[in-house]
Amino acid sequence: MQTTTREIRPSSRDAGRLRNHFNIDKKRRTNQHFQPHAHYHPFYEFFYLMKGHCRFFLHGASVELNAGDLLIIPPGQYHYNVYEKEPIHDRFALYFDDHVLTKDLREQLPLFAEADASAAIFHVSKDVRPIVQDYFEHMLSYYREASSFGDVMLSYMFPAFLLYLSRHVYEPELKETAPVTAAMQDAVKYIHENYAENITLEGAAASAGLAPTYFSRKFKEIVGTGFRDYLTFVRLREAASLLRKTHLPISEVARRCGFNSSNYFGDAFRSAYGMPPRQYRQSEDEVFMLSQQDGNPKVSL
Q1: How many domains does the chain have?
Q2: Residue-range definition of the domain harbouring residue 236
Q3: d(CA 286, CA 280)
Q4: CA–CA dist 150, 13 (Å, integer)
Q5: Rounded distance, CA 148 to CA 132, Å?
Q6: What separation, in Å, do the N-terminal and C-terminal C-alpha atoms of the chain show?
Q7: How many Cβ atoms are within 10 Å of 238's Cβ, its own excluded?
Q8: Which pLDDT band holds residue 84 (cuts at 50, 70, 90)?
Q9: Under a CB-based contact definition with an 8 Å cutoff, are residues 34 and 82 in contact?
Q10: Quick one: which of 85, 81, 99, 92 has its CA closest to 49?
Q11: pTM
Q12: pLDDT at 176 over 50
């Protein structure tokens, strides 16, 4: 496996990626395909592997996918993947946001109960894979049509697809986690529980029971980015949540999320989210006000 330091950032393709809250694509990859950086999306991603084998890295966990596996990645969870073992890999990726999930639909989708907080993996048995693939192919065709008729068809087909999945997928047995990977998961947990404090690499290494130099190297290899970059990612994500949900002063948001300098916080936030914290809060407030004016959200694809 090729190893390098990856910077965590929003996917550069996210701007305008969803059309009517939805997107779908189909790709063929080879073992030479390499993602230069870990990334995250502000919406859900369904990754369905039709052929081949790949490995996803999500918050310090390493997840193997084989043909017939479906990975649900919730908004805001960084990830990257590598393709292994076989020369050719075929996959579908489906993206959507909360607007397509009505309350009634959610109540019928137990798979989302797990995927809301962290990524969840499911397996599609061989006997229903042709039906699942037909759903993907038809949704891709209607999406590429880019017409009002295609959008209406998607608005009916996508909920039906989710309901079908909920009846015909199951959780595979997870393989035992390697000791070093388990240590990285301990370190990631330590960061999430202590991001507001003055965390050091040495302290995180101690939480994983590893020497700092070895810890730093394995953290980059397994988690997908450097310790300091990951800590900043967690702090900025928590800051974005506080900006959306509270009216705390910007300086207080920075302090609660572990930033000693408001100026550094502002620069880091702008780099990650494309706008300063104050503008981000205002844009989120405008979205909330519009949603209140519209009343109950409608399913729109």
Answers
A1: 2
A2: 179-287
A3: 10
A4: 23
A5: 24
A6: 38
A7: 17
A8: confident
A9: yes
A10: 92
A11: 0.64
A12: no
